[in-house]
TrEMBL record:
It comes from the Bacteria. It comes from Gordonibacter urolithinfaciens. Pfam families: ParE_toxin. Keywords: Toxin-antitoxin system. This is Type II toxin-antitoxin system RelE/ParE family toxin. The lineage of its organism: Bacteria, Bacillati, Actinomycetota, Coriobacteriia, Eggerthellales.
């Protein structure tokens, strides 16, 4: 059964900041395109098997049902509610994401 995948405003803003940074600050069309490709792939995977991904290593977030998708140097947090996957935030792997959620 396919799940609906919805992005929070925070996740959309995180995606946009990452792409803008790669595209305009680093002037890397290739890297920004790869991020968008990876996020499209993530959306497809989440639609099919959202619980395939590991629970967050942070106990508080794991109790809240957050799972993580790692790609390149980034991490996307999501959780499943009924038949909807909610992408909550996207972070650079160097960030203390538990503090930011």
């Amino acid at each position: 059964m396919a799940y609906d995948v919805v992005w929070s405003l925070s996740a959309e803003q995180g995606r946009d900041r990452i792409v803008e940074y790669l595209l305009y600050d680093l002037t890397s069309l290739q890297a920004s395109s790869l991020v968008l490709y990876e996020l499209d792939k993530m959306t497809d995977l989440l639609s099919d098997k959202p619980e395939f991904f590991a629970l967050s290593a942070e106990p508080r977030l794991a109790r809240m049902g957050y799972r993580k998708y790692l790609f390149m140097r980034y991490m996307a947090l999501h959780r499943v509610e009924d038949h909807t996957v909610k992408v909550g935030r996207i972070f650079h792997a160097s960030q203390n994401y538990a503090r930011l959620v």
